[in-house]
Amino acid sequence: DAKTTQPPSMDCAEGRAANLPCNHSTISGNEYVYWYRQIHSQGPQYIIHGLKNNETNEMASLIITEDRKSSTLILPHATLRDTAVYYCIVRPITQGGSEKLVFGKGMKLTVNP
Amino acid sequence: DAGVTQSPTHLIKTRGQQVTLRCSPKSGHDTVSWYQQALGQGPQFIFQYYEEEERQRGNFPDRFSGHQFPNYSSELNVNALLLGDSALYLCASNTGTSGRGGYEQYFGPGTRLTVT
Predict the structure, then answer these.
(1) Are A112 and A55 spatial neighbours (Cβ–Cβ below 8 Å)?
(2) Please, is A96 exposed, middle or buried when counting C-beta atoms within 10 Å of its C-beta (0-12, 13-18, 19+)?
């Protein structure tokens, strides 16, 4: 079962920041927080991941609370192309990259013009 | 650099038939995972292949089997198809080495299987 909880859906205005919440209250010390998104009928796309420090890349920022029980994915300037289902996943890191991804139902973000 | 590719894009089969889906991993990747995604659900892990062997498996019956070739490409085989096997089948690849300790999986576009 997925170890994360996300709201089922969220709306955001184009050009505004989209803040996507995720709860992972049972996260372990060796588990990372990963975010993927899936645009309709395409394969999931990796966005970002982090352990305990905030992370930023060209797509998004990831803010993880100090107790690591929740996190927020931030899309700084949402566009219509960001409309997708977003998945928050916790995943242990092992040598060799053997760990599978356990997806929940995700959260549907709709960016409105 | 080609990403993960899958074939065919769409497939229609009849109950009881067998199907083979194919996947080529992203260049430089040696690990291939397969996922099943039913309509309205998140992807569910089927199994993972590394060094031509099944390394781990999800909660799927033995009707689901796979293979990995020396060039790291992979096949997913499903025997005795059921209506409930209708889904998007996703292939993902990754490498076992990463400087930041993360092993991001890169997904292909999927194969849409319809069982009638």
Answers:
(1) no
(2) middle
Per-residue pLDDT tens over the stretch B52-88: 999 889 999 999 999 999 999 999 999 999 999 999 9
Q: In the Cβ-directed half-sphere of A74, how many Cα atoms lie within 13 Å?
A: 12
Phi, psi for residue B46 in degrees, rounded to 5: -100, -65
pLDDT in tens, B78-112: 999 999 999 999 999 988 655 554 468 899 999 99
Does residue A27 contact residue A71 with C-beta atoms inside 8 Å? no
Q: How far apart are CA A80 and CA A5, in angstroms?
A: 25
Q: How far is B19 from chain A (nearest CA, A)?
A: 20
| Candidate from B42, B94, B104 with C-beta closest to A103 | B42
Residues 6+ apart with CB under 8 A from A107: A6, A7, A8, A9, A10, A20, A85, A86, A87, A88
A2 has a chain B CB within 8 A of its CB = yes
Q: Does A105 touch chain B (CB under 8 A)?
A: yes
Closest in B35, B44, B102 to A49, CB measured: B102
CA distances in angstroms from A104 to A4, A14, A90, listed in the order given: 7, 26, 10
CA of residue B21 relative to chain centroid, distance: 8
Is there a contact between A68 and A52 (Cβ–Cβ < 8 Å)? yes
* Residue with token string 């293979």: B67
A27: buried, middle or exposed (CB in 10 Å: 19+, 13-18, 0-12)?
buried
